[in-house]
Amino acid sequence: MAGLYLTVGVLAVVGKLAVEVGFVEPLSQLRWVIVHLVTIGAMTQALFGALPHLISNVGSSTIRLSPRLRWSQWISLNTGYPLILFGMTTGSTVVAVTGATIVLVALALLLVTVYRLSADSRGSLLSRYYRVAPWFLVVGIFAAFGMLLNVHGPGGYFGSIEAHVHANVWGFLALVVAATLLQLIPALTGTELRYPRLKRITFWGMTIGTVGLVSGPWLAMHVLTFTGLAIYVIGTIALLANIVGTKRASGCTKDARVGHILGAYLWLVFPVPWAPLVLLFPNVVPGAPIETAAINGLVFGWMLQLAMAFLPIVVGAFGDTEGVVDVPSAVESSSYTPSWLGVGSINLGMLALWATALPMVSNVAEMLSVAGFALIALPWAVFVVRLWQTFIGDEPRAQREEPTDTSASLGD
């Protein structure tokens, strides 16, 4: 399903390009539909599928789960999400709320899975990342309910939007990604994690920071937002120190997967210095264009690049086994390598999209937008082709460890 939504997403970007050059008429909510095709459509689908395996890799769970529970999660997520899309494009609040409610049910079932699997590994810090992360998605969904039902806090509608984005992206997705990178970077580089003590700083920095980034806009309290932002940056810097330090310790060999990771986090942190300026000087700094560029950066610069770095490896690892997959070993043994040309293209495209937020280039903003989305669409399309090749078995699958104890099987 993640591959399907990524495929529809790249087609939607082509549609957006057609709109911007005037080939077709503007389509309702096209920008937000593209955003949600990548976020809920691709990243959330992939994380729902992989999260139980990732938790099992950091602990020693011997719990066997019924396939019925996993299928219930899949059915709920893939029933609710199309309803959200349909409600967004048609303007039907009832349909969108119904879809969001069903997605919330899927998330509740996932939380049951997460807590059962982590029962034997509560002392593991990485397990704590995975247990906390889904709760931010719960908060994000409730913020979405507020937007759909016109129920807001002191921050009003825009405060609800920011709380929704921050909870889902900077909270749920970023915590899962951080824990996963801390698992996979040693396997990717063939060496030990350079600064293991920083894992705790990353966890608390990102968790406490996200609380401030969610509550601040919703309550219209800038001091909470700024404090949360500062703490979040500390946690992110600690994560990047581990990524860069571990890579440097392994030698100077070039790896496009690491290139995508570093490019991804560039666009995650790039809005940070702009946020205080937008909040404190709204009449001077163009808030709306910067907000648009920041969301584009989170979706196409950060999430899409992380998918391009690892999703085919994960698909190859899960392809023909029903047991718990050793994801780090799959990464270590995988032959999948993205293209450096794709790394350059997508990051150059993001640079063009961010440039559209600058007032001095307003006369060529539309041209820059077309160029930016075109540069992103090209490597995205190549990535989708390689992903489907992995699905149908045209590319070699990663080696994996089969569980020796059947009691450890998830029974997916």
UniProtKB/TrEMBL annotation:
| Entry annotated with the keyword Membrane | yes
Provide this UniProt record's keywords sorted from A to Z: Membrane, Transmembrane, Transmembrane helix
| Name of this chain's protein | Cytochrome C and Quinol oxidase polypeptide I
Q: Which InterPro entries match?
A: Cyt_c_oxase-like_su1_sf (IPR036927)
Specify the domain of life of the species encoding this protein: Archaea
Q: Lineage in the entry?
A: Archaea, Methanobacteriati, Methanobacteriota, Stenosarchaea group, Halobacteria
Which positions, given as ranges, span the membrane?
34-51, 71-88, 94-117, 129-149, 169-189, 201-220, 226-246, 258-281, 293-319, 340-361, 367-388
Signal peptide range equals: none
State whether keyword Transmembrane helix applies.
yes
